[in-house]
From TrEMBL:
Highest taxon of source: Bacteria
Coiled coil: none
Sorted UniProt keywords: Membrane, Transmembrane, Transmembrane helix
Classification via Pfam families: LmeA (PF11209)
Annotated region described as Disordered, given as residue ranges: 146-165
Organism of this sequence: Mycolicibacterium brisbanense
Annotated protein name in UniProt: DUF2993 domain-containing protein
Length: 271
């Protein structure tokens, strides 16, 4: 047993050295990723004229390997509370998959082209700002009840509901109603540049999970008209054309998904 002590010490020392090298390598990789994300966020803030730093995440490990080959697996960008000329405030999101940075450098220069395998682009408007735009200060937007109750389907990969049967709840005072009512609303995109969101109220809802407030027949048309509106200027980050619109939580989201596109960081904010 005594003869094994030097061997055991040697093995322990070797393992400790390897572990220290691994920890150091992971630390260096983590630090490089943080620096790249910080630089990306600062650059995006500048080129998009944002009031504060957006969130930038470069996903995948190890980072340094991705940076050396100028190919990131996935990058997520998110700017919250961006000034919007139509609705006041909106949030912008973009998820990029398989980004070729050969012409952009690993720090992603603002006007250098990025070749992207798949790009998901979103503009998000919360219930508060949708309601203010419509003149319904207490508006709450919810996904269609059939999808809220069914976690297995009915939404896109990013969690957006379908565009039909959303539930809008609020007080339509302009229609002469001083109590909260719930209505179903369908969403669609129109306009030559596909940047106009149309919200069309289709009926009054009562029962569980709603305001459960009936509307007199002679005021139904006015109530539906108050919950219907058109919001222009909904241009998605990087100019991607919308492919779906719906709700996620209490937000309205317009999303566009494109494959095989080339964009520049300076094109993130379109309004």
């Amino acid at each position: 047993m005594g003869n094994n002590v030097p061997v055991r010490k040697l093995v322990i020392g070797f393992v400790a050295t390897v572990l220290a090298l691994v920890v150091a390598a992971v630390g260096v990789d983590f630090g490089a990723a943080i620096y790249a994300e910080y630089r990306l966020a600062r650059t995006l803030r500048t080129v998009a004229a944002l009031n504060w730093d957006p969130t930038a995440a470069i996903l995948g490990f190890p980072f340094i390997t991705q940076a050396r080959r100028h190919q990131y697996n996935e990058v997520e960008l998110r700017a919250i509370g961006v000034d919007h000329p139509v609705v006041g405030k909106a949030s912008l999101e973009a998820t990029m998959h398989h980004i070729n940075l050969t012409e952009a450098s690993w720090l992603i220069r603002p006007n250098a082209p990025m070749h992207i395998g798949k790009l998901e682009s979103r503009i998000i408007i919360d219930s508060t700002h949708v309601g203010r735009f419509m003149g319904i200060d207490d508006l709450l937007v919810e996904a269609p009840s059939r999808e809220t109750n069914d976690p297995t389907g009915g939404t896109t990969e990013s969690g957006i509901s379908s565009n039909q049967g959303l539930v809008f709840t609020g007080t339509p005072r302009a229609a002469g109603i001083d109590k909260r009512v719930s209505v179903t609303v369908d969403l669609s995109i129109t306009g030559e540049d596909h940047s106009t969101l149309v919200m069309t109220a289709t009926g009054v809802l009562t029962g569980a999970g709603t305001a459960d407030q009936p509307v007199p027949e002679d005021k139904t048309a006015a109530v539906l008209a108050e919950f219907s509106s058109t919001i222009t200027g909904q241009r998605l980050p990087f100019g991607i054309a919308p492919t779906s619109e719906g709700a996620r939580g209490s937000d309205i989201i317009i999303e566009g998904i494109a494959e095989g596109v080339t964009v520049e960081l300076s094109e993130f904010r379109q309004t």
